[in-house]
Every structure is written in C-alpha cells, then in structure tokens.
Specification:
The chain has 296 residues and is an alpha/beta fold. It is 22% helix and 32% strand. It has two domains: 47 residues; 237 residues, no CATH class.
C-alpha cells in the first residue's frame, strides 16, 4: 500500500510540474516571444491608463514612466504597479517581446480583411494596417502549443461585434498582435491574444479581451484607454492563473470569456491539478492518521 501511495503521488506531482512549466510553442517564425515580467499584467502602458465605466480586469495593471491611472473605481482590477521597479522592468521586457515578435520570420503576407478567414499557426504580416470585420478563426490543429504572430505595420482596427475564435487546442497565451502604431478594438468585439502596440490601445464600449493590452513598447507616450470592458489575463505559457478580482458595481459583462484556456486543449490542466492536489491531500491525510494510530 505504501508503494502504491508513493507511485500515485509521484504521478500527480509530475503532472503538476508539467502543467506549470512554460510552454515553448513554435510557428514558422520560431519560438514563443518571451514577454518576461510584462506577461504578469493584463494592462500595461507607458504614459496613461484611462478607464470609463465599470470595466472588470482580472489581472494586474502596470504603468511606467507615467503615473496616471484613472477610473478605478468604477472599474476593478488586480494589483497596480505605478512607476515602480516592477513596472519599469515590465516595460523593458515589453520592448524586448515587441522586437522579437516584429523580427520573427514571416509565414505569409496578408492583405484584405481578417474576417472570414481560418488560419493555422504561423507568422502573418500586414505591411500597413489590418482590419477585422466578422469572425477570425485560429485553428490549433489539435495541438495546444501552436503559435500565431500577427505583424501589423501601422494600425489594427476591429469593427463592432467582431470576434476572434479559437478551435482545436489554440490557446489565448499563444496569440500575439504586434502593432506598429495603434490598436482599436471596436464596440462589443470579442478579442483574443496579447496586443503589443507601439503607441496606444483603445477598447471601445463593451469590447472584451481574453489576453493582454500592452502599449508603449517603443514610445514613452503609449496609452491604454478603456470603456466598460472585460479583460482576463490568460494563464499558460509559463504564467499562472490571475488572482480573483470582484466585479464592479453595475457590471454587465461575463465573468468568463468562454472556456478557460487550460480546458480548451486535449489535456484539462486545471482539472488535472485540482484532482491531483485533492488526491495528494487525501493520501497524506490517510498516512497521518495511520501514523497517529500506530504511535497512540
């Protein structure tokens, strides 16, 4: 029985370690861009973070070198790092990630609207602006480690009620939007991925993001502007699940943005971790009771 307990415990601990280790996704352009400490934030900017209405951010906010974060409340978010050492380092790491994404080898150069397309993993380049009207589908092909990088020369703009949909194991943490100037996420758009913008990110009324809004990769005037938005910082790719953030008063946006990323793929990591932790606790509890009985 002792050997069986040890074997079960070893299997669960191995699964747990495998679940939390960073994933190295590959696309045609190479390895996953390393966001460093910038990945610890749902919203990160150089100059300002401005919010209007009951935005709900599950994740942290960072700002440097600027000091102006406004609109919280009525919005709610996780911990805020404002012009401190953590924020300074996050902005340095954002610049590195932005440059790495911009320098990835291109799989294909695109033109025209992203809406109506289904794209497998790869590095897709727009030499100037890119737009999304309707639905863009990202197909993981049955793998949870595939990578998408969109290199956009100038602006990214989505029309109202547009949508990015992930299928067949695609993960939010593996989607990168490297934007040469500004990104505007239109009203009621459901967007996915890490937005790495050179200057600014604007999320208009009711837009949601399963990803990160990171602005000011190169310029110190980078700003993030929010208006009644829902942002969930994705876990995976070496980053843990963000802490709980209560909804703001008057919230009208969903608590979750679809199925959690850990459960999209073939292996349900959150369920595995929960079962493993519970089983390990049970095994330790039984062992402790038996030892106490023997020692009584």
């Amino acid at each position: 029985m002792t050997k069986l307990r040890r074997l079960l415990l070893s299997l669960f601990l191995a699964a747990l370690v495998g679940a939390v280790l960073p994933v190295t996704g590959l696309a045609g352009g190479g390895p996953l861009p390393d966001m460093g400490t910038a990945g610890n934030y749902a919203v990160l900017a150089a100059a300002t973070v401005t919010n209007t209405g009951p935005s709900w951010i599950t994740g942290q906010i960072g700002l440097s070198p600027g000091t102006s974060v406004t609109g919280f409340p009525p919005g709610t978010s996780g911990h805020q790092d404002i012009a401190n050492g953590a924020a300074v380092q996050a902005m340095v790491d954002l610049t590195t990630a932005y440059n790495n994404a911009a320098g990835a080898s291109t799989t294909a150069t695109l033109s025209g609207d992203l809406g109506g397309r289904t794209l497998v993993a790869g590095v897709y380049k727009y030499t100037s602006s890119a737009g999304l009207t309707g639905t863009l589908v990202l197909d993981g092909g049955g793998s949870t480690t595939n990578l998408w990088i969109f290199q956009i020369g100038s602006t990214l703009t989505t029309a109202s009620s547009s949508r990015v949909t992930l299928i067949n194991g695609a993960q939010p943490c593996d989607v990168f939007w490297q934007v040469g100037s500004s990104a505007t996420i239109g009203t009621a758009t459901t967007f996915v991925g890490n937005i790495l913008a050179n200057t600014s990110i604007t999320m208009t009324t009711g837009a949601t993001l399963n990803g990160r809004a990171l602005a000011g990769a190169i310029t110190s005037s980078g700003a993030v502007t929010l208006d009644t938005n829902r942002i969930i910082q994705p876990s995976g790719c070496g980053y843990s699940v963000p802490g709980y953030v209560p909804p703001p008063a008057g919230n009208v946006l969903p608590a979750t943005l679809g199925v959690p990323s850990e459960l999209i793929g073939e292996i349900p990591w959150l369920l595995l971790i929960a079962v493993g932790s519970g089983t390990a606790s049970l095994i330790f509890g039984i062992s402790s009771r038996r030892r106490r009985r023997r020692n009584a």
